[in-house]
Amino acid sequence: MTSTTPPTSAPLVALRGLSKRFSLRGGLFARNTRELRAVDGVDLDIHRGETVGLVGESGCGKSTLARMVIRLLRPSSGQILFDGNDIADLGERQLAPYRRRMQMIFQDPYASLNPRMSVGDIIAEPLEIAAWGDSTTRQARVTQLLDRVGLSRDHAMRFPHEFSGGQRQRVGIARAIALEPELIICDEPISALDVSIQAQVVNMLEDLQQEQGLTYLFISHDLSMVRHIADRIGVMYLGRIVELAPSRKLYRSPAHPYTRLLLDSIPVTDPDRAHTDAAITGEIPSPLHIPSGCAFRTRCPRATALCAEREPALQDLGDGHLASCHHPLSPEAAR
Amino acid sequence: MTALLDVDGLTTSFFTRRGEVKSVRGVSFRVAAGETLGIVGESGSGKSVTCMSILRLLKTGGKVVSGRALFEGRDLLALDEDEMSDLRGNAIGMIFQDPMTSLNPTLTVGEQVIETIIRHRPVSRAAARQRAIELFDMVRIPSPEARLRAYPHEFSGGMRQRVMIAIALACEPKLLIADEPTTALDVTIQRQILVLLKELQAKLGMAIILITHDLGIIVEFTDRMLVMYGGQVMEEGLVTAVFRQPAHPYTRGLIAAIPNIADDNGQRLRPIPGSPPDMHDPPPGCPFAPRCPEAMLQCRVPAPMIQAAIGQSSRCWRLHPDAPRPVEQDGRP
């Protein structure tokens, strides 16, 4: 949580040219099949014990990317190196040993918990599937997990509908950590929760990371919360990472104009810093009609003819700061 | 000052199989012509039910138990249904979180705007259509004439919300009630919509009640605010005053719980412990007392609104002149 420079050891997850294309059939006779580029050639390393945040507008591909990392989706091309092994193309049986090492926490804990199962059974389920211990040790483990996420052992007998949103997310977390995974994908884990409860859940995720050396890929549209929890942040736009930097650097001196505009969109809670003017123009283009060159140029105040002609490559600006822009903001101009 | 809207002692309950849910318990506030009042609160705080009570659009089982809501001197809660439908969409406009559920999916959006205009104004169809084009232009929907012929599903979320704003403003309302209008949108589109609302307010002069759970939206887009919790107003005041010196421990807790984007130190967040009250059986007295670090015995008795500063009051016994000073907590008063 604290270090901003990634450790030098091999990353837990390394994505190489990861892409996902969906083909959409249009027309009555499905002759003109169109292709939707949801994720397009993403390279990203996630190191052990770090939290990488992914931000971007809806449709930018952040959730698709996360679902590929955990192999809920099969990539169209590219590699997913998990602890050095490419899992991008593995079948379900070959994936089994990796499944227990990676878990996911979803946005809506209500939709992801089986309403007919008691909370105790929900938490025990991954243990049973993995044939972890016997029924007695599993019971003990469930009690231990409930305790760890701040619920009492009496809660094991109850059903999801009897819980508040915050408590349900605690159940989701208990289930996710049951098999002591190495990687947890958090997909908008606090978006459905009230402000006063969000902080409880985020603090718990941070504590668990400290205790168990967890690695997080944290997806959220709440840029303030991502800035709080993540060591490094990737900004996605139309399927690509357009900027990647240590969180502090990204917020202090973003290089990509999209990042700057995204940050300026956040309503600030300080009456002295409030600004009601700056608004990013236009909407994110359809992923079926991605603009030529730089995909952001249609909304970018700095766009030139070059941006329509040539696609900017992700360039290293030093100190782990990468951005793909022909006209990046200088550190002074960025603020 | 005569207020445009004067709500007094509004009390609304939902009668369910599990019993009575006391959603709104004695809420009073005023809205002056042309101002923006923000109502902030968490789910179940009663902020939406307050507005739905005023609009007389409560869901099944919901009933206003007592109170008044004077709009230009007429009690909205005492009007018959016909009189109320004349006001809704006319002198009082409204927009909600999810425009997809408020728009009719089987009609073109143009038809829906024209319908609203014809319903409330004695104009021809052609004139109403012309007005619809003007409205689409006003909310910056590109190529308005062509877009009138489109169906709701052909629009993005942000564009649908623009359509809703066009419908809400069709009859130049004096009051616009906006219930979480940008919660389903991306931050970029959220800002576009809120900036647009501010501009239209400056042009048309309507008052706005903006309901949100986002404190940042309150700060940037409203003048005065109510903080609701457990069906009651916990604090009321000018936005700048409340944020510089929040008077209620709940308001302080809420502000402290959100991460500060300017904060570099990765400081640990400070959540409010516990969870919101069960409105089937809310605690006696202050609903926040069970989670309040400053609670005392007196908090079991309902507190009155007590003035904290000029234009700021709070429902907290700690503000009573004879109340003991709270214990200092990690350096914060």
Summarize the helices and strands and which ones pair or pack.
The complex is a heterodimer of chains A (335) and B (333).
Chain A: E1 13-26, E2 32-46, E3 51-55, H1 62-69, E4 77-82, E5 85-86, H2 92-99, E6 102-105, H3 109-112, H4 119-129, H5 135-148, H6 165-177, E7 183-187, H7 195-212, E8 215-219, H8 223-229, E9 232-237, E10 240-246, H9 247-252, H10 257-265, H11 305-309, E11 315-316, E12 322-323, H12 331-334
Parallel strand pairs in A: 3-8, 3-9, 6-7, 7-8
Antiparallel strand pairs in A: 1-2, 1-4, 4-5, 9-10, 10-12, 11-12
Chain B: E1 5-16, E2 19-31, E3 36-40, H1 47-55, E4 62-71, E5 74-75, H2 81-87, E6 92-95, H3 99-102, H4 109-120, H5 125-138, H6 144-147, H7 157-169, E7 175-179, H8 187-204, E8 207-212, H9 215-221, E9 224-229, E10 232-238, H10 239-244, H11 249-257, E11 306-309, E12 312-314
Parallel strand pairs in B: 3-8, 3-9, 6-7, 7-8
Antiparallel strand pairs in B: 1-2, 1-4, 4-5, 9-10, 10-12, 11-12
Give a structural overview.
- The complex is a heterodimer of chains A (335) and B (333).
- Chain A is of the alpha/beta class.
- Helix content of chain A is 32%, strand content 22%.
- In chain A, helix 4 (119-129) runs parallel beside helix 6 and helix 6 (165-177) runs parallel beside helix 7 (195-212).
- The mean pLDDT of chain A is 90.
- Chain B is built from eleven helices and twelve strands.
- In chain B, a hairpin with a 2-residue loop joins strand 9 and strand 10.
- Chains A and B meet through helix 6, helix 7, helix 8, helix 9 and helix 10 of A and helix 8, helix 9, helix 10 and helix 11 of B.
Keywords:
heterodimer, A: 335 residues, alpha/beta, eight-stranded mixed sheet, B: 333 residues, Rossmann fold, 2 domains, four-stranded antiparallel sheet, 11 helices
